[in-house]
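DUF4817 domain-containing protein
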Amino acid sequence: MSRSALRKMIQKFETIGQLGIFPGRRRKQILTSSVEDVAIAVVEANSQSPHGNVSVPDVSRVLDMPARKILRRILNLYPYKIKPLHQLQDGDSEVRTTFALEFLARMLVDVTWPRNVLWSPLLPQWAL
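Predicted structure tokens:
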């Protein structure tokens, strides 16, 4: 900020008692009605789908709302791109097999285990 701008700001504050900075200059909050509309549209699309699948583009078309807004601002989901580092390699078959067997063994003990692990706020995302 330049000296003259700072001087003008001080003079304005002394005369008016305000700086003239208006509130609400940040991102607009999402209305609860739009969140409810998305929830209702998802339930309706789920009931009409023979497989129980709901696609975000279909919901965005029905609500006339951008899919990006639904994914990022309402559902808090962000796109994830698989990189070569994450792709499965040919030599990973033993690791994949042991992981699958451990996963199934834990599922036999407790059916809700995968959901508890994947949606737990206390554990890191891949702490299996």
